[in-house]
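User: We ran a pulldown and think these components assemble together. Before we commit to crystallization trials, I'd like a predicted model of the whole complex to look at. Sequences follow.
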Amino acid sequence: MKHIESVADLRESLRIWRMRGESIAFVPTMGNLHAGHLHLVEEAKKQAERVVVSIFVNPTQFSAGEDFGSYPRTPEKDAAQLRESGVDLLFMPDTETMYPRGSSTFVEVPGISETLCGSFRPGHFRGVATVVCKLFNMVQPEVALFGEKDFQQLTVIHRMVADLNLPVRVIGVPTVREANGLAMSSRNGYLSTEEKSQAALLYQSLLAAKAALEAGERDYRSIETQQLENLKEGGFVPDYFVIRKVDLAEPASCDRDFVILLAARLGKARLIDNIRVRV
Ligand code: PAF
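Assistant: Here's a predicted model for the assembly, 279 residues in total across the polymer chains.
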């Protein structure tokens, strides 16, 4: 596996692969890799001849007072796992490479960026869209893979790629879960053992809401309120629990295709999860 830090070296490696007609699948990450990331790599290997993974803890997607400083950074362990998984190139730029002095251009995807997580983390999706757009321009992959756990992020990226005519196919990969249903996330590392078992309630609340929709309940507000209470009783401080259409718009009673999304705090962690429902 090549381990590259500069854009010039990255472009040189990619140029050689492209000259040979090899296609490139890209998995952007912020590191501290877990089974969910490695699943993205496995899916990427099915999509192209070469797999590029980036690790960059992107400062512009953290709001003031969030965990940018303490975000878990485990570069040696990550590199070993990626080498083991058969990744061809690890791109690990530093902040100066991604945002050189004087850098002032941002990508905004208004509308879907301000709701849900966006209303609790102002500027978050502007930072995500900007860094992903820059990474796409650097790597120029045919395909890029993102976890469906970050459903709103995936929606923002799909919108950005369509609006900017970026020549990349974006694939969402299903969430990988712990045995108790907790969605894999780097932020699960903030949880104590006890909190990890408590956090099984998140997925259970999504399943309960899914069961209500499948049973024909169409009073979305009542399902949401019931599950917000359920989370509070389970020791969480929920930011939201909502039933939406798959484009994140509010559903009408005739809708049949939903995504249920939540964000909630437990101890030091802010956790998100979602589930798709077709009835
Ligand atoms: O999902 C993440 O890990 C990050 O938001 C991403 C897409 C790598 C951008 O920094």
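The first strand starts at residue 2 and ends at 4. That may be worth checking against your pulldown data before setting up trials.

User: Thanks, that helps.
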